[in-house]
Amino acid sequence: MLDRARQKPAVIEVSAERPTAAVRELLPAVVVSAVVSTGIWWVAEKWDAPRQSQVPSALSATAIAVLAAAVVWLVFRARWPRWATPVAWALPGVISTVWLSFALAGSSFYLGGASWDQVSRLQYLTRTADTAALADLNYASLPPFYPAGWFWLGGRFANLTGLEGWQAYQPWAVLTNAVAVAVAFVLWSVLVRRRFALLIAVATAIAGIRGGDFEPYSWTLIATLPAVAVLAHRVFTDAAANRRTSYASIALIGVFLGCAGAIYTLIFVFALLLLLVLALYVALAHRERTLAMAWRLVRALLLVGAIALPLVLLVWAPYLVAMLRDSPAVSTALRFLPAEGAVFPLPMFEFTLTGLVCLVGTAWLVWRYRTDPHARVLAVVVLTGYGWYAASNVALATHRTLLSFRIEPVIVVALVTAACLAVRDGLARLSPGEPRIRALAAVAVFGSVLALTQTAKAEQYPEKSLDEALGDYDLSGTNAYGHADPGKPGHWNGALVDAIARLTGRPAHDLVVATTTQQLLVFRPYHGFQAAYSGWANPLADFAGRDAELRNWAKIGDPGALVRAMEHSRFTAPDVFVFTREGTDYRLRTTHDAFPKTENVGEEVLKFPMAAFSPSRFTRADVGPFTVLARNAQ
Questions:
Q1: How far apart are CA 614 and CA 604, in angstroms?
Q2: In the listed set 327, 351, 376, which residue is the last one of a domain according to the structure?
Q3: Closest to 526 (Cα-Cα) out of 122, 152, 151, 133
Q4: What is the pLDDT of residues 212-269, one digit of tens each?
Q5: Fewest 10 Å CB contacts: which of 183, 434, 448, 576?
Q6: Does 310 fall in a domain?
Q7: b/e string for 393-415 if b means 16 or more Cβ within 10 A?
Q8: Residue 85 CB neighbour total at 10 angstroms
Q9: What domain range is 526 assigned to?
Q10: Do the Cβ atoms of 544 and 557 come closer than 8 Å?
Q11: Quick one: DSSP state of residue 405?
């Protein structure tokens, strides 16, 4: 029995029927997981959670304990019944949804709140909820530079549920996190037995709530990337050996790559690189290195690309056309090097529960690399991730990075998946007829699920993301802690929105706003005169030119001269200014690129003479420490 367990096939055996079945299964799996996740979130959202209490944590732990028991029962039962498959579509996502819904109880925001980069993400969803047209998240009359796929679908979700865009971000993120692991379960079901596909999906969901979920649009891709890599290896192996290739597998890979291009450019490029590395790996490992074999691999890659290209162009075509017409500035999005991007991630050596799981996965990759094709593919994924880190450090010579820290979740998910496959191997080797071993394994899995979820808050990445979600202010003037501090700029969000509506009498999407508090752009589909941060600025918008224009206006003290300068600007001038006050000046906070500093966003305050804003030209309203000035129609 032990010898037979060690005799693994040289390649991943996938019948032609299983990828086809996966294609048919994806839609119902997505629908079931989405409906169940949304229902759970809705119930949690309606619950009046006690503020600053451990009650949500207690209820979350109890619910996840029940879910962990269900996972163990399905994974370790003798047979996999038909009804277990639709349950498994929802179960991993339910764990993620329960944890996030209770952790965010009482907050209108998702992880990260309405701070830093989340300002731009919330702004994007507010924009797509306001219009189904592809439009830049901030600037008026520009096509989007950042892929709109996830945000556009989120806008439709907001319209369907009747939520404003910023309000829809939390449930949409929670829903898509659940859908991602449901898709991972379906794809892994092509490659391993259902019970182990469920185990991998649950482990992936837990890896998400411990940090990967922070960027939900990225996580939808990262959660499924290891399974797609294994499928791609199978396709390339068949192509190299001139065996019949599963076109369903090619379709799955192509759709994944197309979705990546429509959702997140960084993961799209990484996935494309990974496919090329896998194809090269198969070519070098094949006994027959001929031009015919190379052409078959190239043909497989071209088929994948042909399926992906329409999805990519659906989102990118407007920007590419505009880029041919105008000369875009160089984006500063890649000019960011946080501490975690400056070193190679070694999760397997961290003294955490996640570190222990990753250590098991690493050991399995090394132990089984020569005999298990899954181990080889996952090792390639991990090594490609480390290669991306190395390339990012080399790219510093060009004064930019490859945002390598965004690839760390890929490495973690690959190692966590490897740990699940180590459990599979361990059971096959040690417990075919030994109930005590299976019982010990069941207890270990149950304890791991419970422990990993219960310690997730302590190991949350980014560290303050949950605090920001609970501490940031929405339009009510309070936050999830129940605080209503007039000294906090966010306390005045609702009053500022009301003042702008009262002074202008125009729809929010018709207004261009220059504001000292960028958080204001989250709550209504205003067009910002300037993006919150240069890294999120559309290259077609000329961030530097707009900054220079603001500086020029700040030097003008004559009301007529200021209006003339605004009217003759090459940019659409602001309809509304939101300033703070100091003496005889209005103050406007601006940001600039400060790379290579760890805090890559620098701040500066521009002072505008109050005398330049005459009552005949601007209507004024003071809101707490802020002043709203709306340009009068001439």
A1: 25
A2: 327
A3: 122
A4: 899 999 999 999 999 999 999 999 999 999 888 889 999 999 999 999 999 999 999 9
A5: 434
A6: yes
A7: beeeeeebbbbbbbbbbbbbbbb
A8: 20
A9: 489-631
A10: no
A11: G
